[in-house]
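Folds abound. A case:
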Amino acid sequence: MTWTVAPEPYDSPVAAALWRAYCTEVSDRWYLLHEGRRTDPGELEREIAAQSGADLAPPRGRLLVARYGGEAAGTAGVRLLDADTAELTRVFLYERMRGRGGAALLVRAAEDAARALGASRTVLDTRGDLVEARALYARLGYTETEPHNEEPYAEHWFAKRLAGAA
């Protein structure tokens, strides 16, 4: 089985399914940790609808989908914050696809997409309970920084200079 990563329209059925899975997992994880319950279905639907992903469309963004053996496996997005900085977002793999190298492949593909958009650095935020994500970013050369946004659930912020950026 091999991995492929390619751009995907943010509003495609594949992108929508991955966004729903991402929201469900990170939201349930937070609620289980902090309140001992899963996300209220109505709240989950509002969360999913609140972020269409349009900011990941060209010309200022890209949504990428990884496939493993042809099956949709995960996603990553980048969006320009300014002329030099792209934000990495929506990095996610279905649980059954983890441990096969897909996450690092997705992040590197997102960095390539950020370079193609003209960025010379990437930034991202994540939560404290997403320890696997924090370990991945550190392994790929991201360093913790001061906050670059005021996202309500963000607890850790990272940045990386992009080698070979124009």
Notes: The first strand starts at residue 3 and ends at 7.
